[in-house]
Amino acid sequence: AKEEHGNAFQFYSREMSEHALERAELESALRRALERKEFELFYQPKVDTRSGRIIGAEALIRWHHPERGMVSPTRFIPMAEEIGLIVPIGEWVINTACAQNKAWQDAGLPPISVSVNLSARQFNQDDLVDSIASALESWGLDAKHLQLKLTESMVMNSAELFITKLQELEDLGVQLSLDDFGTGYSSLSYLKRFPLHQLKIDQSFVRDIVTDADDAAITSTVTSLGHSLNLKVIAEGVETEEQVAFLREHQCDEMQGYFFSKPLPARDFASLLRKH
Ligand code: C2E
Ligand code: CA
Ligand code: CA
Q: Which chain regions cross the lipid bilayer (predicted)?
């Protein structure tokens, strides 16, 4: 009986463990990825709707796994959040983005702002503001050339704490953008109390603006709402000329998406910016 039990357990655990093993392997590879310098930032241009010029870039992390090749951030960022690694990875992202932006300026490229995604766990670190201030200081980057992308999930614990932290960041002089707007929980009454500079309309709304009347209504309404609150509005996931025309007509301030460019390695982004 003992043996039967053993076999049953073995059978049961084999399927489970393949999954768990793969995950454990990925996790331990992730723990070593920073020191092994396997991360890279890609940069996707953000375009001013009126002038058509590149006015910024969003930094998006890439992980070159030694055996698996490129692992998507949608896979490893949630994992990094669970095991707390998102804090050192997030610091690396901020430092790398600040260093890169300063290097582009020093090379004589037109000054742009670079935006970075923050995760909720990173945002809630007590030393977030200090660590951003010291990144700016050590690279000599003007705070106005760094934009932080925040999400509604950061408000969940306490709106008061959230606002206090936003004010500290605003005092630092960085730009604050509320990401994935409309997909979360935040109420409109909060929105007017947040010291923000920009709203980002999520690509799930932008995707069908040309064919879906509801998405068109949401996008144009969010744009007007943003403007009446004195915020700039940016649309992400812009892939077609028709979407560009719609966003231009509705006076969305900035656009980002494959229509303009995919996220690019730093070198390629710099040549795009130089040619521009
Ligand atoms: P996100 O913040 O919503 O970033 C936009 C995603 O849409 C990016 O995917 C980008 O490459 C992709 N994208 C850009 N233009 C288009 C388009 O025209 N059409 C479509 N279909 N997609 C487009 P990516 O780079 O794979 O990143 C996925 C997610 O991973 C990001 O979603 C963000 O939540 C997270 N992420 C990426 N980099 C970082 C980072 O440095 N820190 C943190 N905390 N999260 C990051
Ligand atoms: Ca984001
Ligand atoms: Ca998004």
A: none
Cα 120 to Cα 181: distance, rounded to the nearest angstrom: 15
C-beta 41 within 6 A of ligand 1:
no
- CA torsion 31-35-40-41 (nearest 10°) is 80
In 3D, which of 139, 154, 56, 57 has the Cα closest to residue 91? 139
Encode 54-69: b = buried (16+ Cβ within 10 Å), e = exposed.
bebbbbbbbbeeeeee
Atom 4 of ligand 1, residue of closest alpha carbon: 60
Q: Report the Cα 114 to chain-centroid distance in Å.
A: 11
d(CA 241, CA 2): 68
Q: Whose CA is nearest to atom 6 of ligand 1?
A: 237
The amino acid occupying position 92 is W
Q: Which two tokens stand for residue 177?
A: 């953008």
Name residue, tokens 């403007």: 227
Rg of the chain, C-alpha, whole Å: 21
Say which residues have a Cβ less than 8 Å from residue 174's Cβ, sequence separation at least 6: 132, 136, 143, 144, 146, 147, 148
Atom 43 in ligand 1: residue holding the nearest Cα: 117
Instruction: Report how far ligand 3's centroid is from the alpha carbon of 225 (Å).
Output: 19
Local mean pLDDT, 10-residue blocks, the chain (276 residues):
53 71 91 97 98 98 95 95 96 98 98 97 94 98 98 82 94 96 73 91 94 95 94 97 98 98 98 93
H or E stretch covering 57 = strand 54-65
Residue 261 CA, chain-centre distance (Å), reads 16
Query: Which ipTM value was assigned to this complex?
Result: 0.98
DSSP β-bridge partners for residue 39: 63
